[in-house]
Amino acid sequence: MGHSRKARPAGRRGQRRRAAPRRSRNTTVTTLASVVLAAATALAVAAYRNPLAATSRPAPAPSHVRHPTASTGLPEPGAVTGHASPSSSATVTHPTPTAKSSPTPIPAKGPGTFTPAQANGKRVGTGATVRRYRVEVEDGIALPAQQAAREISGILANPRSWTADGIDSFQLTSSGPYDFTVKIATPGTVDTIGAAGLDTGGEVNCDVGEDVVVNLKRWVLGSPEFDGPLHDYHALIINHEVGHRIGHGHETCPGSGRPAPVMMQQIKGLKGCIANAWPYDNKHRYLSGPAVP
Question: Which domain holds residue 128?
Answer without folding.
Answer: 114-249
